[in-house]
Amino acid sequence: MVENTQLVSLTVDGKKISAPAGTLLIDACKASGIEIPSFCYYPGLSLQAACRMCVVRIDKMPKLQTACTVPVAEGMVVTSESDEVRQARKATIEILLGNHPLDCPVCDAGGECELQDMTFTYGAAESRFMEAKAHKEEQQWSPVVFFDRPRCILCYRCVRVCGEVMDVWALGVQNRGVNSVIAPNMGDHLECEECGQCIDICPVGALTSGAYRYKTRPWEMNHVGTVCTHCGDGCKTTLGVRRADNGMEIVRGDNRDKSGINGDFLCIKGRYAFDFQQHPDRLKQPLVRKDGKLKPATWDEAFDTIAKRFNAIREQHGGAGFGVIGSTRTTNEENYLLQKFARSVLGTNNIDHHRTADYPAFAAALAGKPEMAASLRDFEKTPAILLIGNDPTHQHPMLATAIRNNVRLHGAKLFIVNHEGLKLRRQSKAYAHIPKDGYGKFIAFLGGDDAVASALANGHTNREQLMAMREMLRGEHQLVIVFGAEVRGKDLETLVKLGMSHTGVKFACLGDYANSRGAADMGLYPDLLPGFTPLADAGDFAAEYGASLPKSAGMDLEKMVDAAKAGKLPAMFVVGANPMARYNVQLGELKNCFLVVQDMFLTETAAMADVVLPAANAYEKSGTMTNTYGDLQIVRPAGDFAGAKPDLELIVRIADRMGVAPQSLVPFGRGTRADMGQSRGAQSGEADRHAIWMVAQGIEPKVSPFDPQALLDEIQRLVPGYGFSRLNLFAGNDVPTHTAGKGKGAHQDPELIWPANDTLFTSGTLGRYSNTLNSVVEAHEGKRYPTQVETD
Amino acid sequence: MVISEKLDRFFTEKMPEYPTKRSFLVPMLLYTQDELGCLTDEAIAYLAKKTELTELEVRNVISYYSMLRTKPMGKFHVQVCTNISCQLRGGDEIYEHCKHKLGIGHKQTTADGVFSLEEVECIGACSWAPAVQVNYDFHENLTPGKMDKVLEDYRNRK
Questions:
Q1: pLDDT in tens, A503-548
Q2: Domain count across chain B
Q3: Domain residues for B25?
Q4: Which of B60, B61, B66, B121 best tests the A interface by mutation, with the highest count of A CBs <10 A?
Q5: Is B55 close to A171, i.e. CB distance below 8 A?
Q6: Residues 6+ apart with CB under 8 A from A345
Q7: What pLDDT digit, counting tens, does each position of A335-393 carry?
Q8: Which of A141, A156, A169 to mutate to test the interface with B (most CBs of B within 10 A)?
Q9: Which overall architecture, per CATH, does domain A317-356+517-680+695-736 show?
Q10: Mean pLDDT (whole number) for A631-647
Q11: What percent of chain A clears pLDDT 70, i.e. is strictly above it?
């Protein structure tokens, strides 16, 4: 990126344009609407000038010049299209096609191939070569990556993105001249992070993915931009879907439009681990326990069973009879609705979720300072980053990429404090390798407590290095301090307080799942309402819900499970979570507990349930999600799986069957007559998707009780920090939320936080049912992984 | 140690004179090849570590240069130039003669491991064409007869 604001004027094709000094000619032209073709040039990567497609005539220069390597200069006169230039490009294509197979009709890239486009533009359809094309069989380099050598045009994009962006360096070029060939690091296969960046960046079909190859053609898919459902980074992913026998099948994930928070980055999970969506083990109909066994049932029967038991238990035991466990992968609207349902319908504060970060302490520490919460975007350009704990390369791949890019392109200074040797150490300015239990001490050390330095020092990092690091840190402004679950409770509070001495400081707290932050923000806590509002401040919520909310704090996740085991919790409602696996509860250990589970699969928890409702996943519904940095994004339905319903609809239907007016839960249809909308399919819950058409036809837009946007209205009205711009959100952008509004009220137990510790190739329950991830894990380790329990 | 301690020490001493560690890679490859006869897998791993590069990158460099090799050649590596000057003065005949005499072809080694043969591009001895390079020594203004003598001398030297 060019920071210089001094403008340089030049003429391209007779048109006067200007660009900041230092801009490359190809970029300057692009910014002025003049497209110069290229294969090897890629913004953000080192320059290659290998393909010769971007040649232009520059006055007073002897030969045609490559626009990708020439910086703009004052008074430069450029001709980007002329017979001479066209002829040169045509000749380049003719040579490229000399050995390129004509298998476009079966090639994955056919229809979105840059070589195809260029051939079409410059018309090099005839070849003067008489030689036979050198054929080589395609090779499989990993479960994910396939290489079709003859199709390769040697642009080196894959080599550069793998090395420079990913810092993996698994691809190289061997030999020279016509014998040059892209080579994987292990001779005949790849050992890498399997991110698929090389495949996505390939301008032709030389690198193809195991997930997508030979499955469909680009024009046969619909493309839906949504948010990845795996880690807490919230990358935007474009899902390619096509009709399947049971709805819509996701066949591809990529981010070629680069419009998201993640640019063109996606890790293996975002790109290929969507296959759980069509897993054969997915639940297709409700299950109800009869004679001790879970048996398929109709929706009517399932809802009836739930409503009857829930009503009876509510009458007999009141709210204390219920325990509600929410999900870290459902949308904000669903989480909000779940706590509203728990508190206003079931009348209980017994509600919790699998916590992976101390968000309440974080919100309290940042009280009144919303500008100090870092967005994922802040990592792109900030001059200094302090990373304490966590391993972003595995747990937050996009954050790791943003940090690497910032160090590489903008020279940011990275400081790392960790109890292990991370891969990011290669980018770090200073690295404190501390003992596993040393995080609290390190924070005390940052605060000036020299006495703990000797306890921190060890074979990896000595006292002097620690001192030097602290000294360097003291001078940093615009510092972004980012920490993992290692920092919680008091330590977190101390760290934030300390950090505030840096001018322009920002903080980020790393949690693990796609909507862990949303679950926290939406009040899935026994003692906090949405927006980390204390129970004592329930005023707005009580008024809105029109019910008297329970006043005392409820049970946390662990206490609920214990109570259920002890026969003291008559009913449990679990949405998209697997607490029984987490606490190692065996079948038959729950006593007198009516358990209702909404999930995609028959997890350990679902297997114990009395009623199981098949749920849709985040790729099949609409709503919003908040990433761990507080960036809110819109989620759109891409896939569709017959038999499953979004959790939002399931909760509304349960309430409806219990005799609760849906309007009291979902404020839909206010001021207009409402219909029930569509419950599934691409338009699920999105009654206003065709608003423009409806307005044109003079029909009032109507919202359904399953419309997440009706709940989003309420969230915006009531939840502190969620007063964002909806225009911006609906344009597909990430918008910041600031849950640091109210301060105090976060009396949380840091002991309840269990990081997921997922690696690049695991992703809780979703990973368990992803064949792609499992095959990669098998290839890498020769065994099925993980032995850890998929708890969410 | 894959290479001699002396060479390793030499590498360590010289390294700081280069702007980056990888700038020293090609000379290091040549020195290592001279000592070991070829660039073995162990040598590649050693050099990758020394230069903080991946083994793949070291292999990429080796595969780019025809004078770097991963398989052992004969004790005496006969490199016959057939570029334009040598060709005009009978380089092709010299090459054919060597093939016949040694009973091996391009980049092959005799069964006893004494000789290997390679047809090479210009070795910069045009003024004395046709020329042949054996290891680092040049033999110039050759004829098939003179070539026999050269080969004989080497055979006796083994």
A1: 999 999 999 999 999 999 999 999 999 999 999 888 889 999 987 8
A2: 2
A3: 5-64
A4: B60
A5: no
A6: A547, A655, A658, A660, A665
A7: 999 999 999 999 999 999 999 999 999 999 998 888 999 999 999 999 999 999 999 99
A8: A169
A9: 3-Layer(aba) Sandwich (3.40)
A10: 94
A11: 93
Give dist(CA A750, CA A221) in Å, integer.
Answer: 46
Among A509-513, A543-547, A676-680, A728-732, top mean pLDDT goes to: A509-513
Looking at the domain that runs over A104-209, which CATH code has it been given? 3.30.70.20
The whole-angstrom distance between B157's CA and the closest CA on chain A is 35
CA distance A175 to chain B (A): 5
B106 shares a domain with B49: no
A5 contact B CB<8A: no
- CATH code, domain with B30: 1.10.10
Residue A694 scores a pLDDT above 70:
no
The conformation of residue A161, written as its DSSP 8-state character, comes to: I
How far, in Å, CA of A412 to CA of A382, rounded? 7
Backbone phi, then psi, for B112, in 5-degree steps? -85, 0
> Predicted ipTM?
0.84
Residue B143 belongs to some domain of the structure = yes
Q: By the CB < 8 Å criterion, does B26 face chain A?
A: no
> How far does the CA of residue B63 sit from the closest CA of chain A (Å)?
5
Q: How far is B31 from chain A (nearest CA, A)?
A: 21
Residue with tokens 């949504």: A226
- Report the distance separating Cα A377 and Cα A403, nearest Å: 10
Does B70 map to a domain?
Answer: no
Contacts of A172 in chain B (CB under 8 A): 54, 56-57, 59-60
Question: For A7-81, CATH number?
Answer: 3.10.20.740
Decide if A447 contacts A354 (C-beta within 8 A).
no
> Does the pLDDT value for residue A442 go beyond 80?
yes
At residue A130 the predicted structure's pLDDT band, cuts being 50, 70 and 90, is confident
How many percent of chain A have pLDDT more than 90? 78
pLDDT score of A724: 86
With an 8 Å Cβ cutoff, is B45 touching chain A? no
Q: Same domain for B11 and B58? A: yes
Closest B-chain CA to A181 = B60
Query: Collapsing DSSP states into helix, strand and coil, what is residue A754?
Result: coil
Residue A45's pLDDT is what?
A: 96
SS3 of residue A173 by DSSP: strand
Task: Calculate the alpha carbon distances from A550 to A318, A457, A466, A687 in Å.
Answer: 10, 49, 49, 34
Whether residue A673 is predicted with pLDDT greater than 80 in this model: the reply is no
Nearest alpha carbon to residue A80 among A30, A118, A155, A40: A30
Q: How many CB pairs under 8 A join A and B?
A: 27
* pLDDT class of A667 with cuts at 50, 70, 90: confident
Q: A359-510 has which fold? A: Dimethylsulfoxide Reductase; domain 2 (3.40.228)
- Find, in chain B, the residue whose alpha carbon is nearest to that of A174: B60
- Could you tell me the pTM of the whole model? 0.91
Q: How do the domains of chain A map onto residue ranges?
A: 7-81, 104-209, 317-356+517-680+695-736, 359-510
Omega before residue B130 within 30° of 0, cis: yes
